[in-house]
Specification:
Elements: E1 11-12, H1 28-37, H2 39-46, H3 48-70, H4 74-78, H5 81-85, H6 90-100, H7 106-118, E2 132-137, E3 143-147, H8 150-169, H9 174-177, E4 181-184, E5 192-193, E6 199-201, H10 203-207, E7 219-220, H11 223-226, H12 231-242, E8 247-251, H13 254-270, H14 279-282, E9 288-292, H15 300-308, E10 313-314, E11 317-322, E12 330-332, E13 340-342, E14 349-354, E15 377-382, E16 390-400, E17 415-421, E18 425-426, E19 433-434, H16 435-449, E20 453-461, E21 470-477, H17 485-500, H18 502-507, E22 518-522, H19 526-533, H20 551-561
Parallel strand pairs: 1-10, 2-6, 4-7, 4-8, 8-9, 9-11, 21-22
Antiparallel strand pairs: 2-3, 5-6, 11-12, 12-13, 13-17, 14-15, 15-16, 16-17, 18-19, 20-21
């Protein structure tokens, strides 16, 4: 194997300098108002020792508040919430809650949610009439409908303020950002209403109508474009609008940000600006990229080049978020640290089930102050929209853990990282691969070889009479002038996965085990064509990073061959 020198790590670009003698933009007042609104909150968030000492108490209060709200709805009555609220010891109350309410997935709530959404029934899982439902759909499962109560909308609003509170603590000025425009690459579906006045759509569709003055003055692309359902047309409309705007903040998934930036650059060249090479040439004041939904590291070189023209020069500020239709879970609070701070005080109670126990009947779950580092957990939420001990399927690990109920122990606020989905894995031959292993291998291989990659997915290669079992990775790769780069990519990918997975190493150890991984390059845009063919194209749909079958990978390869 060739010895590869590790590639240098990208560094943040300097923040844009203000234009000399330029008058302040009237919209910068919106930023000043937001800074004033979050001034007290940002100081509280900056006091990390307070969160170390108090997160357990805060979470107990969240659970108590949820049960108080839900005790007279049907679910609360069935599970004895009123009796539990009579318990003065918070630990006793929590233990009673875990005994009465089992850990469950969406299908256990399906009939209750149908009553609420289709019949307009009140007081089922949450008091009153829930008038909004977020529609979510995976790549292999049917649609799911998630209740979004008024209280949940309020929680999402508070989470959005925390984004700016953390950005201010990291040196970002809201007044500077909002002196221009903030671009949001959200979902795509408009809302549908039934005879009960209940709205259904993706979360972006539920939130977009609530954006009013003064935020509407800095929000781009505007409601009409934001709710377009034809994504190619939507990207083109966004590009034609924003090419003439002063974009200073972008929020969205990296894959769609790349598509948009490419289209904006195409339009600029069509207008005669032949020298433009990157987003900064179009938007010189672009400072912040807020992203979530997928691991960023594999996209890092391409995103750097798209922003600055240099794969080693990153956005001045990036912030990772952990949003979900069920609730806003966490967000990055420190520069250069991938750990995301749990939003522990805005209306959700969290528990975590060890990954290896998730398929047990009513598995034991642990609150955030009783988890262990190095252990993978599946996230369980009790929300202020009526999902009680609900498994959302994400797998996380913890970087810092808060202290106990008395404030003892712990090493900081609760910070976690997403490492996969508990239903996304590969174990066809005992290799025990999860999303984290695949993402790690791709990121290391891209960094070591300099290849710029996009979306990717992995699947088992089943043995035949002439071939051994193995692993195939289909990955979007930009054209390279180095003919040996792809072979080296495979070598580094293989070595990187071995470094983090002993089972894979064992299966790859001799000539009768798994063969070296097969790397299948496809053109950029292939995965989006596959999603489009599956009816899943849009800003909130993600490409699975691995599967224990070949349905997805074969469909992606078919999309590439049909280009």
């Amino acid at each position: 194997m060739n010895t590869l020198t590790p590639a240098p790590t990208p560094t943040a670009s300097p923040r844009p300098a203000p234009t000399p003698d330029a008058p302040p933009s009237p919209t910068s007042l919106v930023g000043r108002l937001i800074a004033a609104r979050v001034a007290r909150r940002r100081r509280k968030l900056a006091n990390t020792d307070w969160w170390r000492r108090n997160t357990a108490r805060v979470q107990h209060r969240q659970l108590q508040s949820l049960m108080s709200a839900g005790m007279f709805c049907r679910f609360g009555k069935q599970h004895g919430f009123e009796r539990m609220l009579g318990m003065h010891d918070p630990e006793e109350r929590y233990q009673a809650y875990t005994k009465e309410v089992p850990v469950r997935d969406w299908y256990a709530f399906k009939d209750d949610i149908a009553e609420m959404r289709e019949q307009g029934k009140r007081g089922v899982l949450w008091p009153g009439l829930v008038t909004r439902f977020a529609q979510t759909s995976g790549t292999t499962a049917g649609d799911k409908f998630i209740p979004v109560s008024d209280e949940m909308m309020r929680s999402n609003y508070l989470a959005s303020l925390d984004i700016f509170a953390h950005l201010i603590n990291r040196g970002v000025s809201p007044a500077r950002i909002m002196g221009g425009r903030c671009l949001f690459l959200g979902g795509s579906s408009d809302l549908s209403y039934n005879e009960h006045g209940i709205a259904t759509g993706d979360l972006s569709g539920l939130v977009t109508p609530l954006i009013r003055w003064p935020l509407s003055k800095i929000y781009s692309p505007g409601r009409e474009i934001a709710l377009m359902s034809d994504w190619p047309a939507k990207i083109d409309a966004m590009a034609r609008l924003t090419i003439d705007q002063d974009i200073r903040f972008i929020s969205g998934m990296p894959s769609w940000a790349l598509v948009l930036i490419d289209r904006v650059l195409e339009l600029a060249r069509e207008r005669g600006r032949k020298s433009v090479t990157c987003a900064r040439d179009i938007w010189p004041n672009l400072e912040v990229f807020v992203h979530g939904g997928v691991k960023y590291t594999p996209f890092l070189p391409r995103m750097c080049r798209a922003f600055s023209g240099d794969p080693l020069v990153d956005f001045p500020c990036r912030q990772e978020l952990y949003p979900a239709s069920e609730g806003f879970i966490a967000m990055q609070d420190r520069t250069g640290d991938p750990g995301m701070r749990l939003l522990s005080d805005i209306g959700t109670f969290y528990e975590f089930v060890p990954l290896e126990r998730i398929n047990d009947d009513n598995p034991e779950a642990f609150p955030c102050w009783r988890v262990d580092k190095g252990q993978k957990y599946v996230v369980v939420m009790s929300t202020n929209a009526g999902l009680w001990r609900y498994v959302i399927g994400d797998v996380v690990e913890f970087d810092t853990i808060p202290g106990d109920l008395e404030g003892n122990g712990g090493d900081g606020p609760c910070r976690l990282r997403i490492v996969g989905r508990h239903r996304h894995f590969i174990n066809a031959f005992g290799e025990n691969l999860i999303v984290e292993h695949i993402e790690h291998g791709v990121a290391e291989a891209a960094r070591a070889t300099g290849l710029e990659v996009g979306e990717f997915t992995a699947a088992p290669v089943y043995p035949t009479e002439t071939t051994r079992p193995g692993l195939e990775l289909v990955v979007e790769v930009l054209e390279s002038t180095d003919p040996g780069a792809l072979a080296r990519f495979g070598e580094v990918f293989d070595a990187a996965v071995k470094a983090v997975n002993v089972d894979y190493t064992t299966k790859r150890a001799d000539s009768v085990g798994m063969q070296p991984p097969t790397i299948t390059p496809v053109p950029p845009g292939t995965f989006h064509r596959w999603l489009d063919a599956a009816g899943k194209l849009g800003g909130q749909h993600k490409c699975p990073r691995c599967a224990n079958h070949r349905d997805i990978i074969d469909a992606v390869k078919a999309a590439a061959s049909n280009e």
